[in-house]
């Protein structure tokens, strides 16, 4: 079993008994990020390669729907199965330093040497500003479609300040 486990990385490659045994033996951490911020980050990483504007990129995402193979913008609930997997920790993007510090202390690791130097406040402010800029580029129809596309993420996680929640 251990040898099979090291060669495979996705749970769906195992049978139900193996999956249940693995999930009981691990500390499960889910990192959650506002889906709109995930879209922005993906667009900025690939800027210019496939879409000339954020609006056209969003349209490409909406056109591909949930059948896309890209985990970069697929709804988290379809990737991480939070209703089926009982996660021990849910770490929200923007609170990494605080929450990762807790996880590191729990694991008995030195906190300061392993955490990034940025502050959560800087990250939150930067993404809030970027979100405002990018959201203003979208049509009313695109905004509604995105809210519908990510409706289960918005329902499952505390993303109250998301532009898509409005």
Automatic annotation (TrEMBL):
Its main location: Golgi. It is found in: Golgi apparatus membrane. GO terms for cellular component: Golgi membrane. It is a single-pass type II membrane protein. GO terms for biological process: carbohydrate biosynthetic process; dermatan sulfate proteoglycan metabolic process. One of its GO terms (molecular function) is sulfotransferase activity. Keywords: Carbohydrate metabolism, Glycoprotein, Golgi apparatus, Membrane, Signal-anchor, Transferase, Transmembrane, Transmembrane helix. It holds the Pfam family Sulfotransfer_2. Its EC number is 2.8.2.-. Belongs to the sulfotransferase 2 family. This is Carbohydrate sulfotransferase. It comes from Formicarius rufipectus. The lineage of its organism: Eukaryota, Metazoa, Chordata, Craniata, Vertebrata. The gene is Chst9_2.
């Amino acid at each position: 079993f251990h040898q099979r486990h090291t060669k495979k990385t996705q749970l769906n490659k195992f049978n139900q008994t193996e999956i249940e045994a693995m999930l009981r033996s691990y500390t499960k951490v889910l990192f959650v990020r506002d889906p709109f911020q995930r879209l922005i980050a993906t667009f900025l990483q690939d800027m210019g390669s496939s879409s000339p504007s954020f609006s056209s990129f969003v349209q490409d995402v909406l056109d591909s729907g949930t059948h896309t193979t890209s985990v970069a913008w697929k709804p988290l609930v379809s990737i991480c199965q939070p209703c089926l997997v009982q996660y021990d920790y849910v770490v929200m993007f923007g609170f990494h330093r605080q929450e990762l510090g807790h996880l590191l202390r729990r694991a008995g690791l030195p906190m300061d040497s392993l955490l990034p130097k940025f502050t959560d406040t800087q990250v939150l402010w930067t993404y809030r500003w970027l979100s405002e800029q990018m959201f203003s580029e979208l049509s009313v129809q695109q905004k509604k479609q995105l809210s519908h596309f990510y409706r289960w993420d918005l329902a499952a996680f505390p993303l109250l300040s998301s532009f898509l929640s409005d």
